[in-house]
C-alpha cells in the first residue's frame, strides 16, 4: 500500500519542482495521538465522578488521621492520598507477601452490615516505625530489614491497637454523604492464607502516603466493589428521600401560609400639600396629582413593588387590573405582562 504524503511533504515537492532542485520529502514530525486501551472484558464499574468522590472522602480521612497520629505519636507526620484506582482483587492480593499484616473491617450503615470486609494494609517498615514510637523509641527502622520479617506476638498486639484506631476513624470521613461505620474485625498476620474476596472481583484501592521525619511508607484501603455499589445506592436513595421531604415540607408551609392576611397597597403617586390646604379640604375638592389619568398604579406588598396596574371598575366597584409583575420566586426582578 503506497504511503500517503502529508501536506508539508506535498508543499516541499511542489516548491522543489518550481526551482528545479532535487529535494528529499520532509519527514512527517506529527506524532500519533496515544489513547488508553480499554479492556471490554473487564468494564469499569465506577465512573470518574465516583472515584473523585472517594478521593474527596479519603482526603478528609487523611486530614483527620494526620492530626490524630501527630498527637498519638508525639511527632509530626504528613498523610496524603496518592491515588484512587479501580482494580481486580488479585492486583491487591499479589502485592502482599508472607509476613504482611492485613486488617479486616466490616461496613455498617443503618440496619445493614455488609458480609464482605474492607481490607487495610500498612507497609511493614512504616508499621515497625510506629511500633517503635509507641514503645518510646525514635521510630528508626533498619534499612536492611528482611522482607520476610514477621511480627512478634508483642508487636502484633500493638498492631491490633493501631489498626483498630485507623479503622474507627474511617467512618467519620463519610459523614457528608452517609452515616457509615467501619467495624473492626481482626488482624490477619498472614494474608496469603485467607481469601475474603474472589480474585477477579472488582475493588477500589485507596493508596495513602504517610511520611514521618525519619520514615515513610504507604497505607492501602481495599474497598470491595459490591460494597461500594450498595453504599452509593443508599446515598442516592437518601438524597431522593431528603429531596421529597423538602418538597413536602415546602408544600405544607405554603398551605399554612395560604390563609395569611397581608396588606396590599395601591399607590397612584406622591404629592405635597401645605397643611393649610389640607385643613381646608372639603368633600368634592379635587387634588391635582399632575399625572395623566391612564398612568399605571403601583401595587406594593410588604413595602416592595410587585405589580403595576390600571384603575377601573368591576361590578360597580373600584378595581385594579394587573398589567405587569416585577417579582419572581427565584428573587429576580423582571417585567412580565400578566393579568
Folded structure, characterized:
Strands 1, 2, 3, 4, 5, 6 and 7 form a seven-stranded antiparallel sheet that branches. Strands 8-9-10-11-12 form a five-stranded antiparallel sheet, with no helix packed on it. It is elongated. The longest helix has 33 residues, at 225-257. The chain is built from seven helices and twelve strands. 32% of the residues lie in helices and 25% in strands. With 339 residues, the chain is of the alpha+beta class.
Percentage of helical residues? 25-40%
The outline comes out as elongated
The number of distinct helices, counting runs of at least 4 residues, comes to 7
User: Would you count the extended β strands for me?
Assistant: 12
User: On the 0-100 scale, what is the average pLDDT?
Assistant: 81
Structural class: alpha+beta
Q: Secondary-structure element order, as H and E?
A: HHEHEEEHHEEEHEHEEEE
Low-confidence stretches: 330-339
Radius of gyration: 37 Å
Q: Please summarize the sheet with the most strands.
A: 7 strands, antiparallel
Strand-residue fraction?
Answer: 25-35%
What structural keywords apply?
seven-stranded antiparallel beta sheet, 12 strands, 339 residues, 7 helices, five-stranded antiparallel beta sheet, alpha+beta
